[in-house]
Design brief:
single chain, about 80 residues, mainly alpha, 3 helices, flat
């Protein structure tokens, strides 16, 4: 059995890399538990720090223009008013 194929050099998104590696690993071994655990831990870190870091420190909702720019990124059916 050959090992996991190397990831493309130009990929910079570590979460995407981990997911790609997990898919390759599952195809080769039938097991994916460790990688799913790793991804869930990574997502939990992002979730726990998003409000303080992204919202407060980067202040991307600081004024009306910024609010409109962010809302334009969200599909209308996902906006709860």
């Amino acid at each position: 059995m050959e090992g996991p194929r190397p990831l493309h050099k130009n990929r910079k998104n570590s979460t995407g890399n981990k997911f790609t590696l997990a898919v390759v690993f599952k195809k080769q071994t039938g097991e994916i538990g460790f990688f799913l655990f790793y991804l869930s831990c990574s997502l939990e870190i992002v979730r726990s720090r998003f409000k303080d870091y992204a919202v407060k420190k980067q202040d991307f909702l600081g004024n009306e223009d910024k609010n409109k720019k962010v809302l334009q990124l969200v599909p209308d059916e996902n906006i709860l008013l």
